Amino acid sequence: MTWKIRESSRKKLAEEEGYRPTTRGGDLSVCLIYPNRYHVGMSNLGFQTVYRLLNNAPGVVCERAFLPDSGDMKEYRASGCRLMTVESRREVASFDLVAFSISFEHDYLNLPLIFELAGIPPLALSRESSHPLILAGGAAIFLNPEPVADFLDLAVLGEAEPVLPPLLTLLLGEEERHELLKKAALLPGIYVPSLLIPHYENELLRGWDADGSAPERVRRVWAPMADTPPSSTAIFTPDTEFGEMALVEVSRGCPRGCRFCAAGFIYLPFRQQPLQSILTQVDEGLRFRKKIGLVGAAVSDYGELGPLCRAIINKGGTFSVSSLRIDGLNDEMIQLLIKSGHKTVALAPEGGSQRLRDLINKGITQEDILAACDRLIGWDILNLKLYFIIGLPTETDDDLKEMVELITTIRERVVTAAKKNKRLGEIILSVNPFIPKPFTPFQWCAMNSLKELEQKENYLQRYFRGMANIRFRMEPPRDALLQAFISRGHRSLSRFILKAHELGSWKKGAKALGLSPELSAGSELPRGEPLPWDFMVTTPKERLVREYEAAFNDYSPPAGA
């Protein structure tokens, strides 16, 4: 280990406050890895929750590792040192279990680099008993683990709280590796890729061949809130996206059912934490930070949001929410936001036109959107962040024009109020391309081509460029394309991920293997064919089909389309 790597780790630990588990003893040693930089990983509440769960389990000691920052990466390359943990600077390859927490598909591409730095063969079939077992979990995994299945011994399909205790009990035993994997495959929510092999005919997926000891389908597991304390920030550090706040989870799932939204389906059923349980975590968070970040896919639908926010303010803290439901915004909530120091409020119309909002089952009208904006403006909140999606299925130029008209109308109202109040107001326009995701009614839909997305981006930029009071942001279409390609990928994508690492570019990797990410992402999937993630038991496919048909059965393409 070099002095620079040791010093980098020491500085990270010196800035951390809060949870301090031991790094000594334990019958099972676990290295928990977030396959991105420290700043990104420590911003992830799921990662922090699993870290605490593992260290609180009897007989288990867990440490953390991350993709090295650029300076550390140079040092690792120059010195030939193996990847090490933050806590004790122990080599990752020396642990019994290496567990990846993966929230986003593009981080799949970082796995080969982490394996290389750790000195661990990336393919499970190439590893020996002397190597650690490799496990992965997180939202990306229980959406679709297949693109990285060849790298994994085990995958967690679902939420960690109910899955980890029986799995850790098994891992603490003395089982030989193959026998351990066979027993693990029988546990709820555990997927063993080597025991469930997809088979193809003419390059088309036809089903799975299960080892006799493994079930043919794996059920996603979810945690009942009554038995599960709220997830909350375990370790506080300024080096995160949320360095000034303590995060507390108020609910999981979403009752709304927007047809494009993966979080709204993979975290079903909608579950809410008891108010008192949340307040206990709030009290702990306020020991370290004055602002509480309320987390959940549907924070606005939390039944006791008003009492919770009032309680935080009464305790001398402030609160933050990522966005609010347009049809649930009332004067009481706005007053609490103002008391908490909010100067910007985020709203998510998402569909640019009423037709598209109906298509995605958003459940709001233009009148609802304008009424919410007027209510905020009336309380002198003149900074609005608006989330929209472009490239939704069936989107036309008319839909984009309606989106522009809506934004322009909102801007005019902000400007009028700003002039009256003699201060500036601003609209932050956050636009993202539609990405088809597993376990949603739109999982079968095609994504717009790069050319189409770039044309739509240019249209919006031309219209809003130079317009005072509006800032336009958009996820790069190529990044969205890569995410779509991976999110619906088969197990064969492990070859692509390895080749992309070898050649230093996912575009070069795809070209070398004769793959077309754009063609794949832009293809409509046949509804009668097996999908790579169909071996998982989660939201019933019949429900997804019904929602798909409800969206499109009455749709008639415009003349000339």
Describe this structure in words.
With 561 residues, the protein is α/β, with parallel strands linked by helices. The chain folds into 2 domains: 3-219, no CATH class; 348-538. The protein has 21 helices and 21 strands. Strands 3-2-4-5-6-7 form a 6-stranded mixed beta sheet. Strands 17-18-19-20 form a 4-stranded parallel beta sheet, covered by helices on one side. A 3-stranded parallel beta sheet has the order 12-15-16, with helices on one face. Helix 11 packs parallel to helix 12 (331-339), helix 14 (366-378) packs parallel to helix 15 (397-421) and helix 18 (493-503) packs across helix 19. The relative contact order is 0.09. The mean pLDDT is 94.
Mean pLDDT equals: 94
Gross morphology is globular
Counted beta strands:
21
The fraction of residues in strands falls at 15-25%
Helix content percent band: 25-40%
Task: Give the count of structural domains.
Answer: 2
Secondary-structure-derived class: alpha/beta
- Strand arrangement in the largest pleated sheet: 3-2-4-5-6-7
The major sheet is characterized as: 6 strands, mixed
Measured between the Cα atoms of the first and last residue, the distance is 62 Å
Low-confidence stretches: none
Whole-number radius of gyration?
24 Å
Q: What is the gist of this entry?
A:
With 561 residues, the chain is α/β, with parallel strands linked by helices. The chain is 38% helix and 17% strand.
